[in-house]
């Protein structure tokens, strides 16, 4: 926790020009996703910003001069986070957002959780901290800075919501007026501390039913509920199972020609899904197949419930959640869009691009204990065929009862029935 009101801390940083250690000048700046300390190098006189160790900036700290000419950060691993931040100061396109105060509290000692982010998955996992902090510090007041679109994920009526109405893709920009608005709120409180917002908070103690207002699939019902398998579609990340198309996909990202080839990739993904559906129908004729996700390109020429949309809002999220919590299995390519589906379904098969291997499990919502964890949580290579994916699905559905029975020896019955996660 970083005490920011009253602000007495002096956060050290290394000057991005000369490398000398500097201490901030006592001012913070709320950029949006990031909170920055204003710094002045005593050696060379450079004015610069340094990120506070919050969210991803705790993993990839960055210091940069206000004119953007000097920066210091981990280029190998941190570029994805740092580039938008530096650009947000270089471009003139500041974002004009409407900021609203909801569920205000009378005062007290505040803990502020900044969940602003341009990636839905990041917002979702950052928000878990709100629920964990609430349990850890019941006497403190909690406030959360959150994109308006994700407000529905705060189900606790006592948590103060600072809602920023801006499309998620614009959340990386400098937000006009945010800094002044946030500091104005501080005046209502005796003190304000900023949560470090760990981006991989522990899953223990998290109750997805409370967060999502949807009860996750209970394992005891696996063999009794109608069989449903759901694929989560994306129109910007694909299951291609082709080295040539994979090469073309990577080239299109590198050289910026994604739009002209997207249709081809969507067509290919829909075709693979069709092959998968035919194989599943043979072995599991009773299965209902559902497709959710963002983007309707790629026609599905096989019998399924197509729940894809062109734009997501709360009503869509809630409809999808009902689908996930009634799905024995969800399938999809690795990504933050898998977090909620895997939190609510019984199990999953995730298609894992090789460059995502270091990020295995980061997008998985819940983990079952013991052997069930491996049995119901499968990762397959990006070049897996529909036949291989179908084999996993069929073996999970048909073999579930046997593994579930065996859990008696592994896990106390009370935990087994509740499907308690480790
Ligand atoms: Zn310097």
Automatic annotation (TrEMBL):
It comes from the Bacteria. This is Uncharacterized protein.
């Amino acid at each position: 926790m970083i005490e920011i009101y009253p602000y007495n801390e002096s956060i050290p940083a290394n000057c991005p020009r000369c490398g000398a250690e500097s201490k901030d000048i006592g001012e913070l700046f709320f950029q949006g996703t990031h909170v920055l300390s204003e710094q002045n190098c005593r050696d060379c006189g450079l004015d610069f910003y340094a990120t506070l160790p919050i969210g991803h900036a705790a993993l990839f700290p960055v210091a940069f001069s206000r004119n953007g000419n000097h920066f210091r950060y981990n280029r190998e691993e941190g570029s994805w986070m740092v580039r938008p931040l530096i650009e947000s100061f270089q471009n003139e396109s500041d974002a004009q957002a409407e900021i609203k105060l909801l569920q205000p509290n009378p005062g007290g000692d505040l803990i502020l959780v900044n969940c602003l982010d341009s990636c839905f998955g990041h917002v979702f996992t950052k928000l878990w901290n709100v629920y964990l902090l609430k349990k850890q510090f019941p006497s403190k007041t909690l406030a959360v800075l959150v994109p308006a679109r994700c407000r529905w994920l705060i189900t606790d009526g006592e948590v103060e919501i600072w809602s920023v109405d801006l499309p998620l893709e614009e959340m990386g920009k400098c937000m006009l007026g945010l800094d002044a608005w946030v500091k104005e709120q501080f005046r209502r409180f005796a003190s304000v501390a900023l949560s470090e917002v760990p981006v991989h908070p522990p899953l223990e103690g998290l109750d997805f039913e409370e967060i999502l207002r949807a009860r996750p699939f209970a394992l005891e019902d696996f063999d009794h509920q109608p069989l449903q398998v759901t694929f989560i579609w994306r129109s910007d990340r694909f299951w291609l199972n082709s080295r040539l198309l994979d090469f073309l996909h990577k080239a299109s990202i590198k050289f910026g020609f994604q739009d002209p080839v997207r249709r081809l990739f969507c067509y290919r993904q829909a075709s693979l899904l069709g092959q998968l559906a035919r194989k599943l129908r043979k072995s599991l004729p009773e299965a209902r197949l559902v497709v959710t996700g963002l983007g309707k390109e790629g026609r599905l020429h096989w019998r399924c419930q197509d729940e894809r949309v062109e734009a997501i809002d709360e009503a869509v999220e809630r409809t999808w959640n009902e689908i996930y919590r009634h799905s024995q299995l969800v399938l999809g390519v690795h990504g933050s869009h898998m977090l909620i589906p895997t939190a609510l379904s019984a199990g999953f098969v995730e298609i894992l691009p090789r460059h995502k291997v270091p990020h295995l499990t980061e997008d998985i919502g819940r983990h079952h204990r013991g052997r069930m964890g491996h049995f119901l949580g499968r990762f397959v290579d990006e070049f897996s065929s529909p036949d291989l994916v179908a084999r996993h699905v069929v073996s999970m559905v048909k073999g579930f009862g046997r593994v579930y029975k065996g859990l008696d020896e592994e896990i106390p019955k009370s935990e087994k029935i509740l499907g308690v996660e480790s």
